[in-house]
């Protein structure tokens, strides 16, 4: 079947792409999806717990993925902030923040979707530099934050993407910009096993071999117990851009975050959408099929 639908959705991807082994799948998925007009990819920092210069590591990993996809000179990239905000009032001016402002302010280009697969530093900086973009037709999709209420999600506390810049999360949540949040209890459900990666991803060229092997390599180095799977937890952001109805969402009144990463009530007139379920079958099958199709040329 040939897809002859020429319509596209304008998107930006902000990714701490060398942080773990799931951003790579999300970035590749976006770039292999013909209905997504990727206006730019912003490599993001992921703190200093593993490497001193994490933003440079993300940039190098992004360059590698673009080479594997034969897209080295075809996709705009713009470096994000090298570290978290120092407070909720001071932006970090970067090429990534400026890209967000430029695209959000385009009056004749239609809706803009921005996927944040790590900290919200560059979105917060863009909002602090240009508060007017909160009123534009822009949707921020954030993979981050802990579960709500008494739900429990295994892992470190605070939630990782939140922990890397709590101040920026508060800026974005307070801004009133349209926000879809995928908290940790949902994004951790997108699990894929080594056996499935070996069968569905590894056979498909240099790209497939790299994507599959780097999952194993990351788990071997950083996971504290034996494991043969990993969550592709950043991929729901791409799935929601491709098909918003692939997620079940609920309305959530205004919240922000305490210094230790818990929710607290905020402006009740603010409202975000929180994803409570995701169509994992659609998401993983679409990723695998597009990787295979890319290899076929």
UniProtKB/TrEMBL annotation:
The keyword Hydrolase applies. Residues 11-259 form the Inosine/uridine-preferring nucleoside hydrolase domain. It comes from the Bacteria. This is Purine nucleosidase. GO terms for molecular function: purine nucleosidase activity. Its EC number is 3.2.2.1. Keywords: Glycosidase, Hydrolase. It holds the Pfam family IU_nuc_hydro. Signal peptide: none annotated. Gene3D superfamilies: Ribonucleoside hydrolase-like.
């Amino acid at each position: 079947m040939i897809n002859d639908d020429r319509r596209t959705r304008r998107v930006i991807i902000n990714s701490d792409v060398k942080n773990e082994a799931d951003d790579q799948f999300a970035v590749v998925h976006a770039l292999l999806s013909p209905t997504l007009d990727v206006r730019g990819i912003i490599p993001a920092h992921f703190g200093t717990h593993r490497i001193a210069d994490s933003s440079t590591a993300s940039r190098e990993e992004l360059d590698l993925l673009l080479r594997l996809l034969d897209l080295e000179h075809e996709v705009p990239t713009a470096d994000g902030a090298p570290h978290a905000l120092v407070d909720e009032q001071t932006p970090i001016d970067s090429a990534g923040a400026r890209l967000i402002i430029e695209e959000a302010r385009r009056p004749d280009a239609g809706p803009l979707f921005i996927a944040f697969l790590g900290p919200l530093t560059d979105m917060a900086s863009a909002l602090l530099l240009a508060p007017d973009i909160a009123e534009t037709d822009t949707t921020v999709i954030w993979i981050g934050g802990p579960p709500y209420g008494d739900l429990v999600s295994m892992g470190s506390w605070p939630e990782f993407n939140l922990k890397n810049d709590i101040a920026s999360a508060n800026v974005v949540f307070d801004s009133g910009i349209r926000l879809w949040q995928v908290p940790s209890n949902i994004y951790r459900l997108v699990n894929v096993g080594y056996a499935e990666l070996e069968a569905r991803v590894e056979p498909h060229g240099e790209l497939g071999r790299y994507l599959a092997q780097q999952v194993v390599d990351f788990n071997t180095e950083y996971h504290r117990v034996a494991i043969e799977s990993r969550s592709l937890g950043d991929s729901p952001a791409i799935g929601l851009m491709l098909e918003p109805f692939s997620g079940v969402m609920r309305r959530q009144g205004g919240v922000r975050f305490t210094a230790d990463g818990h929710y607290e009530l905020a402006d009740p007139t603010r409202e975000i959408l929180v994803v409570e379920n995701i169509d994992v079958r659609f998401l993983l099958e679409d990723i695998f099929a597009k990787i295979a199709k890319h290899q076929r040329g």
